[in-house]
Design brief:
Strand order of the largest sheet: 5-8-7-6-11-9-12-10
Oligomer: single chain
InterPro entries: Alpha/beta_knot_MTases (IPR029028), Ribosomal_eL30-like_sf (IPR029064), rRNA_MeTrfase_TrmH (IPR004441), SpoU_MeTrfase (IPR001537), SpoU_subst-bd (IPR013123), tRNA_m1G_MTases_N (IPR029026)
Domain RNA 2-O ribose methyltransferase substrate binding: 11-86
Number of helices: 10
Distance between the termini: 50 Å
CATH superfamily of the largest domain: SPOUT methyltransferase, trefoil knot domain
Radius of gyration: 19 Å
GO molecular function, one term: RNA methyltransferase activity
Order of helices and strands: HEHEHEHEEHEHEHEHEEEHEH
Pfam families: SpoU_methylase, SpoU_sub_bind
Protein name: RNA methyltransferase, TrmH family
């Protein structure tokens, strides 16, 4: 029972991440640790935890590093209950006529995932198709997102390919990216309703995903480096989608 409970929980740390989480879903907080210097900025959270009998501890830096598992804790750490992803159909049931969904194929680095969620939040992209929703709940990813994780919903299909196909059947254009092939981004007309697919940095999206896409775009540059970091590329791509469809 205890092992199962721990599997359903995760640690989140960082001041902005924890503030956003408390504002968005306080009911998921199980326990918290703070260093004294941040407590004035968490008065509302402390009152809520006391009123709802949630355990919290004011500790020194060394104790918080031990509790959070990192020295980069930002003065606060929550143990929370993990969110689970929603199905593609659940997302489609509420989607509007203008919708950009981000799909990540084999992207697992938590710092990249955090940067990606931050860009999604900035440009209003709320749906993120990913096979393992728990990757978006890791402490490093949530901290790097600086509050952006609370504005993103994980979507999961039976398989990654099945998820993309379900979106296509619902009228979405499947758009992949490539360093070497595809229409130059700033010459492309990005659809109002699309799934933007990005892959892991070394190999990009799989051959199958690339071949089955409706459209491919490339971010042109000097060629001095092979490609952009996947989180940086996400920001560039979503920024252009926003410019064309929202600005």
């Amino acid at each position: 029972m205890i092992r199962r409970q721990r599997a359903e929980e995760t640690r989140v740390y960082g001041e902005n991440a924890c503030k956003a989480l408390f504002q968005s879903r306080p009911e998921c907080i199980v326990r918290a640790w703070f260093i004294q210097s941040v407590t004035p900025r968490f008065k509302e959270a402390l009152r809520w935890m006391a009123a709802n009998r949630k355990a919290y501890h004011v500790v020194d830096d060394a104790e918080l590093a031990k509790a959070s598992g990192t020295e980069h804790h930002g003065g606060v750490c929550f143990i929370i209950k993990k969110r689970s992803g929603i199905s593609v159909q659940s997302w489609l049931n509420k989607a509007g006529e203008e919708d950009c969904v981000l799909a990540l194929e084999d992207v697992g680095n938590p710092h990249n995932l955090g940067g990606i969620m931050r860009s999604c939040a900035h440009f209003g992209v709320k749906g993120l198709l990913i096979q393992d929703a728990s990757l978006l709940e890791s402490g490093a990813a949530v901290r790097t997102a600086e509050g952006g994780a609370e504005h993103v919903v994980a979507i999961s299909g039976e398989t990654f390919g099945d998820g993309l196909e379900a979106f296509r059947k619902a009228g979405y254009t499947i758009v992949t990216t490539s360093s070497h092939q595809g229409t130059p981004l700033y010459k492309a007309e990005l659809p109002k309703k699309m799934v933007l697919v990005l892959g892991q940095e070394r190999d990009g999206v799989s051959d199958t995903t690339f071949e089955n896409a409706d459209m491919s775009v490339a971010i042109e540059g000097t060629g001095n480096v092979e490609s952009l970091n996947v989180s940086v590329a996400t920001g560039v791509l979503l920024g252009e989608w926003w410019r064309q469809n929202k600005a």
